[in-house]
Amino acid sequence: MVVSKAWDWENIKSESWLKPSEESFYYAAKWHSEGRRRLLDLGCGLGRHSIFFDSQGFSVTAIDLSEYGVENLRRWQKKNGVDFRTVVGDMKKLPFADNAFDCIYSYHVLSHTDTEGIKQVMNEVHRVLRPGGEIYFDLCSKKAWHYEKTVGDKIDENTIRFVGGPEDGIPHFFTDEAGMRGLLMDFDINVLRHVETYKTPLYNATGAHWFAEADAVKDAAKPDYSGIIGRTVSGRIDRPIGSVHPRCPQITYPVNYGYVEGVFAADNSEQDIYLLGEDKPVESFTGRVIAVWHRYNDIEDKWIVAPEGAVISDKEIAEKTAFQEKYFDGELFR
Questions:
Q1: Average pLDDT, the chain
Q2: How far is it, in rounded angstroms, from Cα 74 to Cα 10?
Q3: pLDDT at 51 over 60
Q4: Domains of the chain (ranges, CATH numbers)
Q5: Strands 256-264 and 232-239
Q6: DSSP code of 166?
């Protein structure tokens, strides 16, 4: 499986990559009418679709392999006075919880891998979509000029690595109808169409793509924290009340925030906790886990810990943790 390579967005000058694709207008209306709210812009590039879907009222999370692209989006957010989660990450290993999103929009992105890679990507897409969650995406067609003429370095029977230009060194996976249906075997296919375009923004040559709309088929499931809630845990407080977030100076901690020693979370760091029921800065804690704040658009949950016997309402938990959790899409489990 090839190593993922980001687009060289810094040297892309065409204004077309700053304008939403025509399909995004249709899906904004469709998904809004269906009550879908949590949206992943998978391969956000410079941020054109993230900004658009945010303006249409969606709870957007954006991810791209390009640090330059994500930083451009963050500048765009600041300019527009909006704030939603942006992540630098690889589509083959999405840093999000299972069943996190109602819909995924991915335009001219998922082809940027090889035959083994696209299987992994589609497994990740299926994992992070909720049951019935919908994706709209495209893949390069084997009818495309680049595939038929084998323009570039052939990696496997379906993949060509482009040479030169803005996509230098980036792999492109090509498929046919049977390949599309095989990749979507765990989905209900609503739309599958083949489209040819001419004089595309990048190449003065014929382009051909398969476009698909499909819904994830899977059983409904909720996180199970029965083995966590009620446990007595101990650990250290590394960000006490009044301290400032080490990377985000605009965040000051109104509660003690720390970690459970010897217990590791999905991000391979010791499990983070909010310590409630203690109104002074402390260095360590022992208490009972009274709830878990489950982040959908992240891979780590936050345990809510309080002194034995403390009674703390859902409303108080939400208010005390909002200083940080407002930047994420999550849900409280008790």
A1: 93
A2: 15
A3: yes
A4: 9-216 (3.40.50.150), 232-333 (3.90.80.10)
A5: antiparallel
A6: T
Model confidence at 221, pLDDT cuts 50, 70, 90, reads: confident
Residues in the chain: 334
Structure-token pair, residue 161: 């690595």
Q: For residues 327 and 286, what is the distance between their CA atoms, to the nearest angstrom? A: 28
What does the alpha-carbon distance between residue 49 and residue 45 come to, in Å, rounded to a whole number? Answer: 9
Q: Tell me, what amino acid is at 226? A: S
Q: Is 81 left (phi over 0), alpha (psi -120 to 50) or beta?
A: left
Q: How far apart are CA 175 and CA 209, in angstroms?
A: 9
Decide: residue 174, CB within 10 A, 0-12 exposed, 13-18 middle, 19+ buried: buried
How far is it, in rounded angstroms, from Cα 259 to Cα 262? Answer: 9
Residue 219 near residue 212, CB atoms below 8 Å: no
Structure tokens at 158: 């379906």
Residues in CB range of 200: below 8 A, 6 or more apart: 207
Tens of pLDDT, residue by residue over 168-217, are 889 999 999 999 999 999 999 999 999 988 765 554 445 899 999 999 99
Classified as helix, coil or strand, 192 is strand
Give me the percent of the chain exceeding a pLDDT of 70.
98
Q: What six digits make up the tokens of 31?
A: 């998904």
In this predicted model, what pLDDT tens digit does every residue of 66-75 receive, in sequence order? Answer: 999 999 999 9
Which tens digits make up the pLDDT trace of 100-127? 999 999 999 999 999 999 999 999 999 9
pTM of the prediction? 0.92
